[in-house]
Amino acid sequence: MVKTMPFLPLLLSLFLYLSFANEAQCYQQKNVLSLQTFQWKPQSSPPSCLSRKSRRKNGATILEIKHRDYCSGNIIDWNKKQPNRLILDDFHVHSLQSRMKNMASHMNIEDASKTQIPLTSGLKLGILNYIVSVELGVRNMTVIMDTGSDLTWVQCQPCKLCYNQQEPLFNPGTSLSYQSVLCNSTTCQSLQFSTGNSGVCGSNQTTCNYVVNYGDGSYTSGELAREHLNLGTTPVNNFLFGCGRNNKGLFGGTSGLMGLGRSDLSVISQTSALFGGVFSYCLPSTEAGESGSLVMGGDSSVFKNYTPISYTKMAPNPQLSTFYFLNLTGISIGGVALQNPSFANGGIMIDSGTVITRLAPSIYKAVKAEFQNQFSGFPQAPGYSILDTCFNLSGFDEVNIPIIKLQFEGNAELTVDVTGILYFVKTDASQVCLALASLSYEDEIGIIGNYQQKNQRVIYDTKLSKLGFAGETCSFS
Q1: Integer angstrom CA distances of residue 467 from 11, 279, 304, 343, 464
Q2: Is residue 351 among the annotated active site residues?
Q3: Do 284 and 340 belong to one domain?
Q4: Are residues 238 and 315 in the same domain?
Q5: CA distance 466 to 261
Q6: How far, in whole angstroms, is CA 188 from its chain's centroid?
Q7: Is residue 42 assigned to a domain?
Q8: What is the mean pLDDT of each run of 10 residues along the chain (477 residues)?
Q9: What's the rounded Cα separation, in Å, for the pair 192 and 77?
Q10: pTM assigned to the model
Q11: Active-site residue flag, 388
Q12: Are 146 and 131 in contact, with CB atoms under 8 Å apart?
């Protein structure tokens, strides 16, 4: 008995040490979010949305990207704008799910140097996506960057039906390098795979007409053509694109759309000889003055990542081969790994055009429960639209938020930036929600949205079929 007494203080000390270490570990699994970060204010003077800034570094051309919210220069009712984004995103995801289901069932649903291009969030133009500026022919064009689309298109003169855009319409009649694609060509026939609609002959029986329906009522139609494209200062000759004569939808004042998908008509495929089928982006946060970049090519020396790049394999999906899929193997909340059999199903899509990440109902239920367990002690607030886990944080200057990590095959990991975890429905923080949403059904395809990709360098290597993540504070400077 006398010999065992000295062990009691030792055991007590060990217990206290382990308890302290556990508390310290839990604290390390949270990040501090200043609520002042999300105070939206009107600009005193209209800033330029359509930035032309660019530079070259180590063989890369870098173009600036800004967030759309701060480009109008007008007084905006943010308490209306913030909720409306969620409603529009819901429409977008429903149309995307419908499009993928129809494609999977083979239905016809819709008729040199590394280059870094600046990205601006499309929210400045009233849309939910990020935008880049390129030069087509001799005209500067601001287009939506979309990894879920393949065909690049712009609005063209003469236009039968066009939405309002900030820049002049592209006029093929003033370009010496513009060439129409013939309707009986193999290029015209390739539209079936890229857009879901085969090319059709125009009124003169020679031009190749295209139609793309996006499922939410948005569409573009016109003729397929070739033109000289400049990505920054990198020239791309005979670039295939759509010259849109009839266009309608939520394209928010841009000139059109840049397709970054995987078909032969996408920018990535058409520039594979220049950039090796590799591109990456860093999507900026929504604060005024923030910017990001789109990098064409695999030169990692131009990245500013502060964590190592971790790669995962792109998951093959023969029926939806133009999209980018990954195998999601797990999610952790504040260091707590979630257990769910749905992780075994794997495939989740990563998309630059979707805002809020969508998870299978069973996975979302587990995420919600663990997040509420760790983010406790805050007043509840009603849900809004697709978001149902909401809080009233109006009485706080800052909060500690559990770190959310998405794990993928090959031990790759995406650590969601602190600004991508909560969504402010109301600017006074009286209605702040977990920025994740549930799909309607277990068999729907999960999507990693751009809100959770902010301040990340996301690298797509289509030749080696892999995708990488690294933390990076997005900045053009």
Answers
A1: 47, 10, 17, 19, 9
A2: yes
A3: no
A4: no
A5: 14
A6: 29
A7: no
A8: 45 43 49 75 51 66 62 54 72 74 56 49 51 90 88 95 91 95 85 62 76 77 95 93 91 86 93 92 79 88 94 92 94 94 84 92 96 96 96 95 96 96 92 96 92 95 97 89
A9: 42
A10: 0.86
A11: no
A12: no
DSSP, residue by residue, 275-311: HTTEEEEEB--SSTT-EEEEEESS-GGG---SS--EE
Asked whether residue 275 is domain-assigned, the answer is yes
pLDDT of residue 113: 37
Question: For residue 88, what are its two tokens?
Answer: 């529009």
- Nearest to residue 390, comparing CAs of 423, 352, 433? 433
Q: Does one domain contain both 317 and 176?
A: no
Which of the 8 DSSP states describes residue 56?
E
Q: Are residues 316 and 368 in the same domain?
A: yes
* Cβ-contact 331, 412 below 8 angstroms: no
| Amino acid at position 318, single letter | P
What span, in angstroms and rounded, lies between the C-alpha atoms of 233 and 176? 19
Amino acid at 13: S
pLDDT attached to residue 51: 58
Tell whether the torsion through CA atoms of 447, 454, 42 and 253 is positive or negative.
negative
Q: Say what the pLDDT of residue 35 is.
A: 84
Closest alpha carbon to 426 in 69, 2, 81: 81
**Could you write out the DSSP letters of every residue in 74-112?**
S---HHHHHHHHHHHHHHHHHHHHHHHHHHHTT------
- pLDDT value for 392: 97
Helix (H) or strand (E) holding 437: strand 436-438
CA 426 – CA 210 distance, rounded (Å): 42
Contact present, 468 and 309 (Cβ < 8 Å): yes
Co-location of 378 and 456 in the same domain? yes
Residue 308: asked if its preceding bond is cis (omega within 30°), the reply is no
Q: Clarify whether residues 206 and 315 are in a common domain.
A: no
Look up the CATH number of the domain holding residue 366: 2.40.70.10
The answer to whether residue 33 sits within a structural domain is: no
Residue pair 320/258 in contact by the 8 Å Cβ criterion: no
The total of structural domains in the chain comes to 2
Instruction: Find tokens 């995103």 and name the residue.
Output: 89
Set 146, 150, 299, 417: catalytic member: 146
User: Domain residues for 204?
Assistant: 48-296
Q: Which residues of 111-139 are buried (b: 16+ CB within 10 A; e: fewer)?
A: bebbbbbbbbbbbbbbbbbbbbbbbbbeb
| Alpha-carbon gap, residue 287 to 300, rounded angstroms | 26
CA atoms within 13 A on the CB side of 363: 31
Which one of 89, 150, 216, 351 is the catalytic residue? 351
274 and 369 co-located in one domain: no
3-state secondary structure of 18: helix
Residue 394 gets which letter from DSSP? T
